[in-house]
Write a structure and sequence with these properties.
The protein is of the alpha+beta class. The chain folds into 2 domains: about 5-235, Rossmann fold, CATH 3.40.50.300; about 245-350, Beta Barrel (OB fold (Dihydrolipoamide Acetyltransferase, E2P)). Helix content is about 25%, strand content about 35%. The protein is built from 8 helices and 22 strands. It has a 6-stranded mixed β-sheet, sandwiched between helices. It has a 6-stranded antiparallel β-sheet with strand order 13-12-11-14-21-22. A 4-stranded antiparallel β-sheet has the order 2-1-4-5, covered by helices on one side. Strand 7 (about 160-165), helix 5 (about 175-190) and strand 8 form a beta-alpha-beta unit. Helix 2 packs across helix 3, helix 2 (about 100-105) runs parallel beside helix 4 and helix 3 (about 115-125) crosses helix 4 (about 140-155). The protein binds adenosine-5'-triphosphate. Adenosine-5'-triphosphate binds near residues 47 and 49. It holds the Pfam family ABC_tran.
């Protein structure tokens, strides 16, 4: 397995353009650990597939280099990069049996037959297709075919990395959950470097050790699920991670205090930002307390989602969400309070000051 270096990568499709906004990838410069499980998470069009395809060699970057364990592979074609890839839709041989489909990548590399048999049996059991081993793939459902694709990605143990592009899209929800956990287990067992593209935060957060959040052609944060939840570096991360996402409220900083919605709150620290500067505060809906004291809010809607209620309200001229326990009271004259510790401060969308 390999450490992956993304060295000042930029990419524009078609004509190379000088305006930064015309780049599908603006500037990606990171090192990803050998054996890491990375999820690329972000909304449609943010550049996830472009980055994955640059790693695999399907797309040549307009600028920058890509290195596997220090070796520059930028100009190597896909087949010489020693990677396994699993795409959104199954890529398998319909006329071969399930067993032979899984054995193919190993036999192709002249792996001894007893080893082929051992690996194939292990993988076929993991994907739940042992009973189908001798069946031709053409008779299988799309769901089963995708499991074979997944198995083919995992069957080799000598690859530099395994790249997944939304591989569970066609799998039913229960099986999705099962395969995700098995993928995690296999990753722990074999320690392969995995890069997994998804726009589904649950998928990214349950599977990856490091989640790479992308927005508009850039990596805006790489972190553990807890880091992304508690200390989002960019307002987009706060909004995208969590359900509902972080509230972003306009405010004005004055030394150690912040003024918003006509109220002044002592932050307990002086953020590195000019006094009087307009800024935004990020507060998770889970960290806002709704009660009879604090700053007034106007409730517009209460959504009952079982064990919790999501209260939609207007605060400081901004719509906010507040998560309340299912038994939580909703006062007739509602007010809110929150701890300083749960506040993140942003200037130009980027987090500033105090830890
Ligand atoms: P999705 O989740 O919808 O697959 P993504 O995050 O993977 O999106 P990309 O597919 O990498 O995003 O696309 C990034 C940007 O590059 C988008 O603006 C897209 O329209 C553009 N793009 C992608 N592929 C091409 C292409 N072959 N030619 C021109 N533009 C492209």
């Amino acid at each position: 397995m390999a450490r992956i270096n993304l060295d000042h990568i930029r990419h524009a499709y078609g004509v190379r353009l000088s305006a930064p906004d015309d780049y599908a990838l603006k500037e990606v410069h990171h090192e990803w650990d050998d054996g890491g499980a990375y999820a690329l998470l972000g909304p449609s069009g943010c550049g996830k597939t472009t980055l994955l395809n640059i790693i695999s060699g399907l797309v040549q970057p307009s600028e920058g280099r890509i290195l596997f364990d220090g070796e520059d592979v930028t100009n190597l074609p896909t087949q010489e990069r020693n990677i396994a890839q699993v795409f959104q839709f199954p890529v398998i041989y319909d006329t071969m049996t399930v067993y032979d489909n899984l054995a193919f990548p190993l036999r192709n590399r002249k792996v001894p037959e007893p080893e082929v048999d051992r690996r194939v049996r292990e993988i076929i059991e993991m994907i739940g297709l042992s009973d189908w081993a001798k069946k031709k793939a053409q008779g299988l459902t799309a769901d089963q075919k995708q499991k074979i694709s997944l198995g083919r990605g995992l069957v080799r143990s000598d690859v530099s990395a395994i790249l997944f592009d939304e591989p569970l899209t066609v799998i039913d929800p229960h099986m999705k959950w099962v395969l995700r956990s098995q993928l995690k287990r296999l990753h722990k067992q074999f320690g392969f470097t995995m890069v997994y593209v998804t726009h589904d935060q649950t998928e990214a957060l349950t599977f990856a050790d490091k989640v790479v959040v992308m927005y508009d052609g850039e990596i805006v944060q790489i972190g553990t699920p807890a880091e992304l939840f508690e200390k989002p570096k960019h307002t987009f991360v706060g909004y995208f991670i969590g359900s509902p996402g972080m509230n972003v409220i306009p405010a004005r900083i004055d030394g150690r205090t912040v003024e918003m919605g006509g109220q002044t709150i002592d932050l307990g620290f002086a953020p590195k930002i000019a006094s009087g500067a307009r800024t935004e505060l990020g507060i998770r809906p889970e960290f806002i307390r709704l009660g009879r004291v604090g700053m007034p809010v106007t409730i517009s809607k209460v959504e009952d989602i079982g064990r919790q209620k999501i209260v939609r309200a207007q605060f400081a001229d901004k719509p906010i969400a507040i998560v309340v326990h299912e038994d939580g009271e909703i006062p007739s004259e509602p007010r809110v309070t929150f701890d300083q510790a749960s506040i993140n401060i942003y200037a130009d969308s980027w987090r500033v000051g105090g830890e």
